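Please, why this fold?
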Amino acid sequence: MIYLDNGATSLQKPEAVKRAVLRAMLRCGNPGRSGHRAAMEAAETVYHTREAAGKLFSCRPEQVVFTTNCTHGLNMAMGTLVRPGMRVVISGFEHNAVTRTLHAMGARITVCGRKLFDWEDTLAAFRKGLDAGAEVAVFTHASNVFGYVLPVEDLAAMCRRYGVPFVIDAAQSAGSQKVDFTALGADFIAMPGHKGLLGPQGTGIVLCKDTVKPLLYGGTGSQSRLQEMPAELPDRAEAGTLNVPGIAGLGAGLDYLLREGVEKVGAREHRQAARCASYLEKRGFRVFRGTHQCGTVSFVPPGDCEEFAARLGEKGIAVRAGLHCAPLAHESAGTLETGTVRISFGYGANNRETEGFLRAIASVH
């Protein structure tokens, strides 16, 4: 199988990730709960992953809070900042993890910037939204549907000038695009562990600038006399037993990225995605591509997207079709009624994968 669905999860992981998960299952107890060797090894494993994340994202280890996925982290972040009736600006390319959460919170949402791959439109629309009195901003770093990399540095600087707290959804950028938490000055950046960070499913990270409102309450292995959650991070946000095997695997994925370099990984993914986009255009598909794009490309084939993706699946090519849990992005691009077929490369993007995909396209169209 040629796996081109890394926007959903990175199926193929470095071997070190698998070994780290197994080692933790065999050797690690419950971190912070005891002083015996198994508990101490678990604590060391968890802290190693915090340190690795701190190095990769330019933050302190205690600012790294482990979650079950990116959605968990986004809920925690928005739950801290947003109250019912607050005016929140978002981009026109947000995932349901953002939009459904804000709707559930009773926020007043303003969508800012609907043109794909157009930084000027995105920035002008956000400026207008902030001028109108936005109280919180939430924006994705890269669209999960179209691979549009938003101007997050400029958006972050704009929010800081206006004094508006903001959250960045790094679900599609962490591991392939630079994410500098300190330089961005975000209140929160949420990301999954199982996509570009190459960890197992069931893992995630939310980077927290100061404090956070807990989603869960319970034991932390610290300050047990308190009947409130500890004030200090990360304990304040990590109630209950952590997914130590998952965190161990995530740590190995972060170690790989620190050695390899996210810029190198991102360039590799983008190169192969651009080659696919060019070929698809030559064959007459409607292809969504632009200057500011990562290793993800969407296209509209003749006929039904789901059926086309199924035919590719029969040829051994794994892609995703439909609305990709992001109807707002499709509404912005004019594909809400059709959906798209999406190819998304991972850390091991190479010519063999691309050539296999191109052969399959030629055989089904």
User: Anything to note?
Assistant: DSSP finds twelve helices and 13 strands in the chain. The mean pLDDT is 97. Residues 37-57 form the longest helix (21 residues).
